[in-house]
Amino acid sequence: MRHAVVCLSVFLSLSAPSLAASDADAQHAAPAGSAVAGARINGMTPPGGMTVSLPMPLQTPPRALAKGENTSDAERDRAYGAFQRGFFLTAVAIATRLANDNDRAAQTLLGVLYERGYGVNQNIATSASWYELAAAQGDPQAAYRLGLYYLLGTGVTRDETKAGDLFELAAKAGLGGALYNLGVLHMENRGGRRDPAQALTLFEQAAQQSDTDAQYALALAYIDKDSLLRDDRLGAFWMGRAARGNHIAAQVHYGIMRYNGHGVEPDKEDAATWFQRAATAGNPVAMNRLARLYAHGQGVGFDPLEAASWHLIARNAGVSDLWLDGYLESLDDKTQSEASTRASQWTDVGKAAEH
User: Based on the structure, what is the number of domains in the chain?
Assistant: First the structure.
């Protein structure tokens, strides 16, 4: 917030997403669980504040090899079936036997089991060693997982060049996460990659596979005011795709685009819906956006209590807003007190969920 008395329309316009510079959305809008249920790589900041995704742990086991490779299909199916049903000790026993016979699918599965600590003590270094063996045989899932390890320096010595090599192997198999992360390396001139045009191609390939991080990255590229590729309608299309895929930062940006009519028809009610979704997911930027809508009765009914409550929740999360601070002070004591109680309850529930 740049000034205490900036009106809502100007505020939202000033806060529209920009590829050239990060803003509060970029700093605070990253999802707690993205296309991954997972962490984000600190320090890896592609354009507009996106961050490389680390999908840890895997949500589904890597796919098994085609029939006729290395070992019996029945044994491999038993290992994967045990994994999916939660019989991890059985999965470990079968996968270990197959992996020692050089079955790359079993080696990848063991990498997952050691990564998660399912049926064994969690050991990232051991996980990396199994992924290494499987990747050496060309397994794309193992290559992708190992690439993430090298990018982070988790379980292995950090090596962005090797990470890029592994992402390339996995990208050839069409893995969306590998395409996206390889694109980020190109965009950021890291790991020996330096081709922004190739980055956009990779983002689009991943985006077509419904990789929401790639969709968000592509949207930011299209709405960059300095980009030769600028196309606000395409930017809105991909931002909307990412938002509908539950990418929290995209929901905040798409709400702004819907409010201002940036690449799409303006619709304050729809903007409020997107801010509500992101705010409910815990995004403090969206909370303040939503609070302003309630304070002005735009896209939602005029409701000072909702406005105050959402602003206090955002402020408790470390994201304030000078205009809303002043608005809060103008409310009567009863409304302020009730809003404070609501915010405290929200914060308490959030803390409980973390434990």
Answer: 2
Is residue 99's pLDDT more than 60?
Answer: yes
The predicted model scores a pTM of 0.77
Q: Are residues 152 and 274 part of one domain?
A: no
| pLDDT > 60? residue 82 | yes
> Domain range for residue 229?
39-240
3 state SS for the chain: CCCCCCCHHHHHHHCCCCCCCCCHHHHHCCCCCCCCCCEECCCCCCHHHCCCEECCCCCCCCCCCCCCCCCCHHHHHHHHHHHHHCCHHHHHHHHHHHHHCCCHHHHHHHHHHHHHCCCCCCCHHHHHHHHHHHHHCCCHHHHHHHHHHHHHCCCCCCCHHHHHHHHHHHHHCCCHHHHHHHHHHHHHCCCCCCCHHHHHHHHHHHHHCCCHHHHHHHHHHHHCCCCCCCCHHHHHHHHHHHHHCCCHHHHHHHHHHHHHCCCCCCCHHHHHHHHHHHHHCCCHHHHHHHHHHHHHCCCCCCCHHHHHHHHHHHHHCCCCCHHHHHHHHHCCHHHHHHHHHHHHHHHHHHHHHHC
Residue 96 inside a domain? The answer is yes
pLDDT at 353: 61
Average pLDDT, the chain: 83
- Together in a domain, 263 and 137: no
Largest CA distance in the chain: 74
| Whole-number pLDDT of residue 46 | 31
Average pLDDT of span 330-344 = 97
Q: Name the amino acid, one letter, at 260.
A: N
For residues 19 and 70, state if they share a domain: no
Determine how β-strand 53-54 pairs with β-strand 39-40.
antiparallel
pLDDT of residue 52: 38
pLDDT tens readout for residues 118-173: 999 999 999 999 999 999 999 999 999 999 999 999 999 999 999 999 999 999 99
